[in-house]
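From the shared-data thread, chain only:
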Amino acid sequence: MVGEPENDTGSLEPGRTNMRNRIAASAIMATLVVGLCVTGCERGPMQKAGEKVDEITGNDKLIGKGPAEKTGRKIDNTVDDIKK
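Structure, as tokens:
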């Protein structure tokens, strides 16, 4: 390419070629990750069917009160008290 230094054999420096390969590989990987994230966000037919089953059986709400639920309620109560 124009303006790029060459070594004694007339080819591009190995460091520059390696860096270009890494940049190209990174761009391809980033594109694949974004593509997977976008398709992963869509609700598929199995998820829709599962939600219908949950609604019919009455399990569409969170089951049980675990430690995270209790902590969340405590935080909500504290925030409400601070707002008053």
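The two ends are 68 Å apart (CA to CA).
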